[in-house]
Here is the input.
Amino acid sequence: MRLSVFGCGYLGAVHAASMAKLGHDVIGIDVLPEQVAMLEAGTPPFHEPGLPELLAEALGSGRLRFSTDASAASDATVHFLCVGTPQKRGEFAADLRYVHSAVEALLPLLKPGDVVVGKSTVPVGTAEDIAERIKEVQPDAELLWNPEFLREGFAVQDTLHPDRLVYGMADTESARAASQALDEVYAETLADGTPKVEADLATAQLVKVAANSFLATKISFINAMAELCEATGADVTVLADAIGHDARIGRRFLNAGVGFGGGCLPKDIRAFMARAGELGVDQALSFLREVDSINMRRRVRMVDLAREECGGSIVGRRVAVLGAAFKPDSDDIRDSPALSVAAQMQLQGAEVVVADPQAIDNARKKWPDLTYADTALDAATGADLVMVLTEWPEYVKLEPAALAAVVRGRRILDGRNCLVPEAWRSAGWSYRALGRP
Ligand code: UDX
Here is the structure.
């Protein structure tokens, strides 16, 4: 099939390459010429395992192209909307300007029978507005809503082998017919036994934000338990293992630490609260405010713990921060807890040196005043305190003796509960973590 993908950021670039892998002819459209040039050259503009190989294969097959010119999408019959919906500056609500401009660029190209498929995370009600706009211009085109659930670091796997496919559609004959086009797009994925959930447009839009709200709540729940553990001398990692054995609870997303960040969970729960307010049901989501507060409190607690470890003041203390990305296997620093703690420490007078295997370039653009090092050992050289804030495998595997040889003080803070405390303590380190004695 001939497909177009509007928006070639994280979601769109991976989706476009994955659809070409599934055998479709795909044109990716983006307004940023440098992004398009990089993708055309087979270089993803961000770090994502497996994507360089997938892009190379798809470009080599001749089935994947990129352009800044929307009219290049005129041959396609199924058009995916994959643009970003960031948080508005100074507000909780989502900024829909990229969604609207992609739709406006697409409208003049639509032919009878074309299907527009929304994948972006949007406030519920947005799809209905887009559907109306499409009908005004091309009454014989249809809108479906098919949210994406990909995780950074696993984006290729999540796109080619998703846990489920959600099809949101109006209750009309023509919408049902349009959903058959989507079945054809995902024929291979459906043949693998991927569950398909059909829903109305409102439900399909809500599924995505509900899922992300649940995940954020799960993380904040365990971080709230970590606060209790800190007050009682209990161990949140053992608590998580123990409650996680209950299949109704499950162990995943119960890792306590500096909390969640990234381009999705924080802004999605906020946009969800803003939308609930507009709908007059803000009380239904008031718990998400608490989820957000617990999450932000962990960053403050991390700085406080650093102060305690440094004997009451971090002023002039040299601190190595290991990790800048919001999670391992990513170079994404959007709302990164690691970088937010690093910046806070620097603002409060510490001399902070940050290391990260992938995210240094992005971190430097956002926080040019921090000092950056290429390796953990470089960052830790002469440090009074080492803080592990993103659980990259190379940091988890660090040898206490190797680090001890370069630091000024053997003090380590484990912000992700990813190290083995005994290994560090027995090597003469002071080891502290969140929610763990
Ligand atoms: C998330 C959702 O998982 C994905 O389904 C959705 O499509 C986009 O948002 P992503 O932002 O890539 O994906 O990251 P995720 O793996 O969910 O982690 C989010 C944050 O939570 C990270 O900062 C991570 O470090 C943190 N986290 C995760 C925890 O603090 N504890 C955990 O147990 C799990």
Summary: The longest strand covers residues 2-6. The two ends are 57 Å apart (CA to CA). Residues 149-152, 212, 215, 219, 253-255, 257, 259-262, 264-265, 326-327 surround uridine-5'-diphosphate-xylopyranose (CB under 6 Å). The chain has a mean pLDDT of 97.
